[in-house]
Amino acid sequence: MDLSENTPLVLPLFLLNDTIEQRDIEHPDLTLEVTLDETLLANLCQNPSIEENISINLAQYSLSAHETEYETAISSAHQAQLILNHGPVLSAVVSLESELVFISPPMEMMPTFDLGEEEDN
Known about the structure:
single chain, mainly beta, 8-stranded antiparallel β-sheet, 2 helices, 9% helix, 37% strand
């Protein structure tokens, strides 16, 4: 997963329940989109130790419902976090006011940086 400033990070979200392991990754319930700013990128460039994780609360993000049953639910209060585990492995958690919880599948990532240097060919 390439991360760069001022680009969107889009993660599929699935209702956390007993059937989550059988779900098709191509058909999420919701989609979380957040624009990667300098601060968020700095937080994502960490690699926590095996025993720890880093929780990053999101202030600015958008949710899109892919299932009509969740359209009303996301119009009420909700909160989103990115969770960074050792690897680094990134996932997202969204909690709705209705007490529904949605999670994204864990994604291995290796942040890459464009330092503005071009290779001569």
